[in-house]
Amino acid sequence: MDIKIAYFFKTCVLALLLLLPATAAFAEKPDISCDKQSFDFMTGRYLLDGNVRVASKGRAVTADHAQVSLITQEVWAQGNVTLLQEGITFRGDDLYVEGKGHIAYLKKNILFERGDLTIKADDIAFNWDTKIAECAGNITRIRAGEKKKLSRLVYNVAMDEIIEEEP
To answer: Which of 49, 67, 111, 161 could in theory staple to 45 by disulfide, Cβ–Cβ 3.0 to 4.6 A?
Structure first.
């Protein structure tokens, strides 16, 4: 039994030593808050549960549950997900953030509202550099009372401009 504990301890210390230089390379560590947090050494991810908030560089993700990799700058979130950036708010059930690519992918029950525009969709890919949202799957776009069903929608959030619509 003592050998197993010593092996586990050595493995944990080795994993921490390997992770520390990689996480120190980031210019800004995300601000993370939640009710319960743990770390999975096998995946290198923080496991977050309850009232999760992960914020970095003017963006924030809130959710019921999330996993965060500081090394790959990825975030996976599930349940009551909200993506916030500079007055832009997307809501959905699931989210994956590709931090290095600056893209957030939201899935299931997506809702975006701004002024007289409402977009509901199955999937949205949002590039936070270009502020372009690409929507796919069972899209409903409502603007100024006009409702349209679409298969694809590309929207420039910063300019409040619909770039492309496909029925």
So the answer is: 67
Stated pTM of the model: 0.79
- Paired tokens of 66: 């999330």
Q: Write a three-state SS string for the chain.
A: CHHHHHHHHHHHHHHHHHHHHHHHCCCCCCEEECCEEEEECCCCEEEEEEEEEEEECCEEEEEEEEEEECCCCEEEEEEEEEEEECCEEEEEEEEEEECCCCEEEEEEEEEEEECCEEEEEEEEEEECCCCEEEEEEEEEEEECCEEEEEEEEEEECCCCEEEEEEC
